[in-house]
Design goal:
This protein has 634 residues and is of the alpha/beta class. The protein has three domains: 393 residues, Na+/H+ antiporter like fold, CATH 1.20.1530; 110 residues, NAD(P)-binding Rossmann-like Domain (Rossmann fold), CATH 3.40.50.720; 97 residues, Regulator of K+ conductance, C-terminal domain (Alpha-Beta Plaits), CATH 3.30.70.1450. The protein is 64% helix and 9% strand. The protein contains 29 helices and eleven strands. The strands form two sheets. A six-stranded parallel sheet has the order 3-2-1-4-5-6, with helices on both faces. It has a five-stranded antiparallel sheet with strand order 7-8-11-9-10. Helix 3 packs across helix 7 and helix 3 packs across helix 11. The longest helix is centred in the N-terminal third of the chain and has 28 residues. The protein is elongated, with a radius of gyration of 31 Å. The chain starts with a helix and ends with a helix.
């Protein structure tokens, strides 16, 4: 039995892989690779894709997952902080862009009022999917221009409702638009209220119990259900799928499950978002570009410049800095995906012709293709513009965008697992004034430690997204204390692949794991089996004087004990064992110290080493020999 969609997906993946590889080599945005794939395979290209409707459905899922992932990195407080730029800035941008666009089309298209109104509304909308995709990939979602752009996009998604209702009215068959608008508004308010109530009551309880089960498949299913389910509810209320998915992401992130959820959905998000951009590429009709090259290009350039200026001004009037306004304006300069739907609705209502639709699609896609470059080079363009003689007041602005009060983590320790070993390490860090972040998979532990003020997060540390959220790039070391050997291997491998220079200390039960873990990138491996042997030897051997003992086998392959006398003038004299940290730095464990015929077994970390102390140490022959050389150096 032939399955067309399976064959189409295979072709799309193969072509996209080649296109993205070329884009990567040329250092151009990956979105262009997907657009090229759509152009080549679509009905206006080689016509290889037959299941076009199915591809469009997967594209919708891609937009939902993209906005859900963006929401996971927000929180309710961050959303509420955007109300002023959303309402005032977004309202100004949409209104002025629609008016200016409508007036231009009115005079350019033979005084066609209906066409002008629809064209103006279409031009006022930006691409939520493209803007947030590029900002997220560049790590700029939390920047001032990222926040302000998001605020305006949220307003645009809400403004779509009255716009869509206005099109049938323009055609003369809209019924009572005020009643429809009122009912849609009421449904929207109820749905949004339900989302927030769910965020406060149902969601935290469900996610807590799901996380406590430690079933990753169940966690993934529940998270995806939250995203798709909320998106479906908002869609039924007349809002966009994207807005619903964004709210769902915020709902999940509000209670500390955001990073784990993000790491779970990212693979699906990337794949399905690719389908969205491929579907956009499939709309490109080169015949239209061949027939009207100057008109289409001029219209696209006019929209990009005009809308960028209006969008920047909508931010500037709120008294934000000029540079932030310019970068935000450039990010919002393109026309969005919802304009395609509006154009189709206009054709169905008889307001637009098929030629109008084709022309609009050609212009919109061109602005979309330019969007990644506008965002990438926005900072450079803004820096050149602000060199012009603007007032210092305009350049600096009187308003600042809300940003999260973040603790700066640098040179800190990441503690993976917050059991007994993790807590002891955390206590030692506190005592020595060292910063740390704990990553734990037990939601009950995370909840309790949060209340104590501990820097702890819920997540699977084998996920790179979780480690990035723990600031792996600026950490001094990562200590993996979880008992699961498979998890330890994955975490060590992931951490080493992402950060070639970080010091990794891993825990394992068996001595046999030492070699494999070191091959994966661990700098030091603490074996419970060896630690048990150390304790055993310390307790037994500490009962006897070890003076004159050169070397004895510890009963483990490659491990021996030896007594070393601290010479006069040794650099370790007067330092305690915590400062020396011989096990961590030299791979040698001090089992006992003999001083003036008195032996201290298993000395504590605050034990101070003195001249002529006899140290009974355990380690490899090589490590012990190195230690002996260090003790003699002056």
């Amino acid at each position: 039995m032939e399955i067309p969609i399976l064959a189409d997906i295979t072709v799309i993946f193969a072509t996209a892989a080649v296109s993205l590889a070329i884009c990567s080599r040329l250092n151009v945005p990956e979105i262009l690779g997907y657009l090229i794939t759509g152009v080549l395979l679509g009905p206006n290209g080689l016509s290889v894709i037959h299941a076009i409707h199915e591809v469009e459905m997967m594209a919708e899922i891609g937009v939902v997952l993209l906005l859900f992932a963006v929401g996971l990195e927000f929180s309710l407080s961050h959303l509420l902080s955007l109300k002023r730029p959303a309402l005032l800035g977004g309202g100004f941008q949409v209104t002025v862009t629609a008016l200016v666009g409508g007036v231009v089309v009115y005079f350019m298209a033979g005084h066609n009022v209906k066409l002008a109104v629809v064209a103006g509304m279409m031009a006022s909308l930006s691409s939520t999917a493209i803007v947030l995709k590029v900002l997220a990939s560049r790590g700029e979602m939390d920047s001032p221009h990222g926040r302000l752009s998001t605020a305006v996009l949220i307003f645009q998604d809400i403004a779509v409702i009255p716009m869509m209702l206005a099109i049938p009215v323009l055609a003369g068959n809209g019924g009572n638009v005020y009643t429809e608008l009122g009912m849609t508004g009421l449904k929207a308010v109820l749905i949004v209220a339900a989302v927030f109530i769910g965020a406060m009551t149902l969601v935290p309880k469900v996610l807590f119990h799901v996380a406590a089960s430690k079933n990753r498949e169940l966690f993934l299913l529940v998270v995806v259900l939250a995203g798709l389910g909320t998106a479906s509810l908002t869609y039924k209320a007349g809002l966009s799928l994207a807005l619903g998915a964004f709210l769902a992401g915020i709902m999940v992130s509000e209670y500390g499950y955001g990073q784990q959820a993000l790491s779970s959905v990212i693979p699906f998000k990337d794949i399905f978002t690719g389908f969205f951009f491929v579907s956009i590429g499939m709309l490109i009709d080169f015949q239209m570009y061949a027939e009207y090259p100057v008109m289409i290009t001029a219209a696209a350039v006019a929209i990009l410049f005009g809308k960028s200026i209006i969008s920047a001004f909508s931010i500037l009037i709120l008294k934000y800095p000029l540079k932030t306004a310019i970068v935000s304006g450039l990010a919002l300069g393109q026309v969005g995906e919802f304009s395609f739907i509006m154009a189709k609705t206009g054709v169905s209502a008889g307001v637009l012709t098929n030629d109008h639709y084709k022309f609009a699609v050609a212009v919109i896609v061109l602005t979309m293709a330019a969007a990644p470059f506008a965002i990438r080079y926005g900072e450079r363009i803004a820096m050149q513009i602000i060199k012009l003689p603007f007032s210092e007041k305009m350049k600096s602005g009187a308003q600042t965008i809300f940003t999260r009060p973040k603790k700066i983590f640098e040179d800190h320790i990441i503690i993976v697992g917050y059991g007994l070993a993790g807590r002891q390490l955390a206590a030692s860090c506190r005592k020595d004034g060292l910063d740390f972040i704990a990553v734990e998979m037990n939601p009950e532990t995370v909840k309790k430690e949060h209340l104590k003020g501990t820097d702890i997060m819920y997540g699977d540390a084998s996920s790179i997204e979780v480690l990035e959220h723990a600031h792996l790039d600026t950490a001094r070391a990562i200590a993996v204390t979880v008992p699961d050997p498979v998890a330890v291997r994955k975490i060590v491998e992931t951490a080493r692949a992402e950060h070639p220079y970080i010091h990794i200390v891993a825990r394992t039960r068996y001595a046999l794991e030492l070699g494999p873990l070191k091959k994966l990138g661990a700098n030091a491996v603490i074996s419970e089996e060896i630690e048990y042997a150390n304790k055993l030897v310390a307790e037994v051997m500490g009962r006897y004087e070890e003076t004159g003992v050169e070397a004895k086998s510890a009963g483990l392959p490659g491990v021996e004990t030896r007594t070393i006398t601290v010479p006069v003038g040794s650099p370790i004299t007067g330092k305690n064992l915590r400062t020396l940290d011989l096990r961590y730095r030299r791979g040698v464990t001090v089992l006992s110290v003999t001083r003036s015929a008195k032996t201290t077994s298993n000395p504590k970390c605050d034990f101070i080493i003195m001249e002529r102390d006899e140290l009974l140490v355990m380690g490899s022959e090589k490590d012990i020999s190195k230690l002996g050389s260090i003790l003699k150096s002056k």
